[in-house]
Amino acid sequence: MAPDRDRRALRKARNADVVGHFSTDLAAAVAWGGELVKRLTQTYKKLNASREQFDRAMGQHAEMLARLEELEAHRAREEGEAKVQREALEAQLVAEKEAHEAEKAALALLEAELEEVKARAGQEAYYNASGFTDLRSSIFLIVIVHRIRMSSH
Predict the structure, then answer these.
(1) Three-state SS for 133?
(2) For FRET with 64, which of 2, 33, 46, 136 sits at 20 to 30 Å CA-CA?
(3) Which parts form a coiled-coil structure per UniProt (predicted)?
(4) What tens digit of pLDDT does each residue of 81-90 get?
């Protein structure tokens, strides 16, 4: 129990001296043990505080990950909705372009028909002046037949 350096001195010493020697060493050991316990307690408290901070940080981290997943899901939904809306708008644009082209073609046909009617009106005026009245009804029938043909396309 005694260190090697102290054994020789203890063999030659009296009992009272040995008890004194051990008492001195024991007091130093107890004081050192008390300091050790104090330091271990402080370290344990710091460790617990660090663990609590770590647990809080991990909780916040988990919350942030959940929030990030929610935001990514929301963004994916919005991108899907935007894609559908864009496709619908593109389809609407194509339909409107086709309708515009159809209107332009119909307008060109109407203008050609108008020119034809004007030409026939001039002929009708000539025939009316000459006494032909059946031409007006024949032109009317031609225009109606022409419009029926156009509407069936």
Answers:
(1) coil
(2) 46
(3) 37-120
(4) 999 999 999 9
Instruction: Give 10's Cβ-side CA count (13 Å radius).
Output: 13
Asked whether 103 and 129 are in contact (CB, 8 A), the reply is no
pLDDT, tens digit (0-9, with 9 covering 90-100), for 24-80:
666 676 677 778 888 899 999 999 999 999 999 999 999 999 999 999 999 999 999
- CB of 150 within 8 A of CB of 110? no
The residue type found at 4 is: D
Residue at 64: amino acid letter: M
Q: Which of 38, 5, 18 is nearest to 46 (CA)?
A: 38
pTM of the model: 0.43
**Separation CA 116–CA 103 (nearest Å):** 19
Residue 21, token pair as written in the block = 């020697």
Residue 82 has φ and ψ, to the nearest 5°, of -65, -40
